[in-house]
Amino acid sequence: MNTKPLGPSGLNASVIGLGAWVLGGGTVWGPNPDDSESIRTIQEALDLGVNLIDTAPAYGWGRSETVVGQALKGRRDKAIVATKCGLWWEDDRGSFFAHFDGRPMNRSLRPDTLQLEIEQSLRRLGTDRIDLYQTHWPSAPPEATPIADTMATLVKLRDQGKVRALGVCNVSPDELLENLRCGGIVSDQFRYSMLCRGAEKDILPLCAEKGLATLTYMSLEQGLLTGKVGMDRVFNPGEFRTNDAWNPWFLPVNRRRILDQLAAWQDLTDKYACTLAQLVLAWTAAQPGVTHVLAGARNATQLRENVRAASLNLEPADLARMRRDVEALGEPAHQS
Ligand SMILES: NC(=O)c1ccc[n+]([C@@H]2O[C@H](COP(=O)([O-])OP(=O)(O)OC[C@H]3O[C@@H](n4cnc5c(N)ncnc54)[C@H](OP(=O)(O)O)[C@@H]3O)[C@@H](O)[C@H]2O)c1
């Protein structure tokens, strides 16, 4: 497995990281994951050289962190554990973020909730240090915490040895710069796929300029870009894939266009003897500024397939052709 520096942290992380959101389960992800299969998946990731494991307290209300911790028992040093802080549900501190599984979750980057969160994450993960500690979403009104206050707390946690390196997720360029000024982050995590390329305008070049690692998420568009989600697939109400604001490409009118496009790449999957998931992940990893691609995997079969993308080198002409094709798809239609 190829590795790249995790920004200036001194850590080298696998180019394909395992995203552990789905392992938290809940109505957002449809079928409930089997924890023993989740543990096997994480352990097989380590066996295959995937050392970057990305989780968060919010994924299944602690469940994802707990299975990561169970999987890493006895092998903690093989992994770069990336988790997050800043989504809070224990009381009404913070600002409302969203409902998951019918329960409200707030954003909170207040020093007092951060101090509680780190202890809970360490306990669930069964470790005494987190390798990469990322703010999950920036603070927002009505109860916004200044970045300087959040970063002062996080830097203290780093100085205490509870955290090795700090990162952010989902920030604007201005917020990224302010986080850098206040504490020395090493990475930024954000949504980026061949269908969702907004980060190319600002965040990707900015991270490259500042020498930060970039961890892309939803790069398989939650399975759509594997080609397996046919026109007959129906999602349960509440599944994230029915969220038109986030996932408009799943709407049947858009899905048809994606499936046709994926089918038109048959010559590429033949040429590289690869699957669509591998082709898409390899394209993503090859884009300027991208250092690491997080791929969620519900089971070891998906993981094994995704891992091979790290060793797939697409020729420049094929990368350019795929870009032309996805640009020609234009914007997805939204539900009226
Ligand atoms: N910081 C943030 O705000 C944020 C937000 C989103 C995600 N993330 C991180 O990024 C990671 C990746 O994003 P994601 O998991 O949402 O989306 P993703 O990687 O685009 O898609 C993952 C899903 O696609 C399906 N899949 C994956 N590999 C497959 C394969 N080879 N064949 C068939 N299906 C396959 C599986 O879903 P099914 O089995 O259900 O079909 C899997 O759960 C997350 O796990 C999380 O760690 C972070």
Keywords:
binds NADP nicotinamide-adenine-dinucleotide phosphate, 11 helices, about 325 residues, 13 strands, alpha/beta, TIM Barrel
Q: Would you mind describing this structure in some detail?
A:
- By secondary structure, this protein is an alpha/beta fold.
- It has one domain (3-329): TIM Barrel (Alpha-Beta Barrel).
- Helices cover 35% and strands 18% of the residues.
- It has helices at 35-47, 63-71, 111-125, 147-159, 173-183, 203-210, 252-263, 266-271, 276-285, 300-307, 316-329; strands at 3-5, 12-14, 16-19, 52-54, 80-85, 87-88, 95-100, 103-107, 130-135, 163-169, 187-191, 213-217, 292-296.
- The strands form three sheets. An eight-stranded parallel β-barrel has the order 3-4-5-9-10-11-12-13, surrounded by six helices. It has a three-stranded antiparallel sheet with strand order 6-8-7, with no helix packed on it.
- Strand 9, helix 4 (147-159) and strand 10 form a beta-alpha-beta unit.
- The protein is globular, with a radius of gyration of 19 Å.
- The chain starts with a strand and ends in a 7-residue tail after the last helix.
- The model has no long low-confidence stretch (mean pLDDT 97).
- Residues 19-22, 30, 54, 136, 169-170, 189, 217-223, 226, 228, 277, 294-298, 302, 305-306 line the site of NADP nicotinamide-adenine-dinucleotide phosphate.
